[in-house]
Specification:
By secondary structure, this protein is α/β, with parallel strands linked by helices. The chain has helices at about 35-40, 65-80, 90-105, 125-130, 135-140, 145-155, 160-170, 175-185, 200-205, 220-230, 245-250, 250-260; strands at about 1-5, 5-10, 20-25, 45-50, 85-90, 110-115, 205-210, 235. It has a single domain, classed as Alpha/Beta hydrolase fold, catalytic domain (Rossmann fold, 3-Layer(aba) Sandwich). Helix 3 links the parallel strand 5 and strand 6. The radius of gyration is 17 Å and the shape is globular.
Length: about 260
């Protein structure tokens, strides 16, 4: 693992290739992108995938708020000198990465959006509501064991292997990291996105929406809404895949992303 701007990251592909920046969600890490990074490298792309602060091999950088993660992503991009990026996001990586792209128009040349949201009228799912609730959230993160964590994630994605679960459980390695989960979920409201209405469309870049329809967290309606609101966006639905679409259907998801990227100028 390399480090830039305080974030550990994985990288694959030629240093002079076009750049794809891959931003993971909760509670995963850059490990989720291993398969796609290999595919990108084979296709001549430079894939760069950071661990968000407090996740994977990145040290916490409290407070672990939404805005702080957005700012951290820009420091990371700037230190590595990444320009004209194809931005690939999943879950909280979407809320962070898409907000970052809107804050820095002209840097992202394309968007790949997977099982996330970016809508001011969004609703928190059940787990998020628990994390946002004082007392309940503390009890949940403090009591989380590796065994319970594995059972919970495999209910969503049976394909997750032990190595992936070990990598993702690093986010629970100490109290500071666990508190960061609560800081993230309690740090904002969907209404904060009122200021970003129309911003993704205004970027004027090609977009691919790739979605696992068996998602218990983000409804299929979000995929169709992204496709409606982003002019010319492509929508790929991978039947049988759930929230962790790149791990549930790595071949189909990877092929969809590479076909999309191959059409960029």
């Amino acid at each position: 693992m390399k480090t830039a701007a305080g974030l550990a990251y994985r990288e694959a592909g030629p240093s002079d290739g076009p750049v794809a920046l891959l931003v993971h969600g909760y509670p995963s890490s850059s490990w989720m992108w291993n398969d796609l990074l290999g595919r990108l490298a084979t296709a001549g792309w430079r894939g760069v995938a950071p661990d968000l602060a407090g996740y994977g091999d990145s040290a916490p950088d409290p407070p672990g708020t939404w805005v702080r993660h957005v700012e951290s992503l820009e420091r990371f991009r700037a230190e590595l000198g990444l320009e004209r990026i194809a931005l690939i996001v999943h879950d909280w990586g979407g809320l962070i990465g898409l907000r970052w792209a809107c804050d820095h128009p002209g840097v992202a040349r394309a968007l790949v959006i997977a099982n996330t949201g970016f809508f001011a009228d969004g609703k928190w799912h059940g787990l998020a509501r628990m994390l946002r609730t004082p007392g309940t959230g503390e009890e949940l993160v403090d009591g989380m064991t590796r065994e319970a964590f594995g059972v919970g994630l495999r209910e969503q994605s049976p394909a997750l292997d032990d190595r992936a679960l070990d990598e993702y459980f690093k986010a629970f390695a100490d109290e500071e990291r666990r508190r960061g989960h609560l800081e993230l979920y309690r740090s904002g409201e969907f209404s904060d996105l009122d200021a970003y209405r129309g911003c993704l469309a205004a970027l004027g870049v090609p977009a691919l929406v790739v979605w696992g329809p068996e998602d218990r967290y983000v409804p299929m309606s979000a995929a169709h809404r992204f496709a409606r609101e982003l002019p010319g966006a492509e929508l790929t639905i991978l039947d049988g895949a759930g929230h962790f679409v790149f791990e549930d259907a790595p071949d189909a998801a990877g092929e969809a992303v590479l076909r999309f990227l191959a059409r960029l100028d």
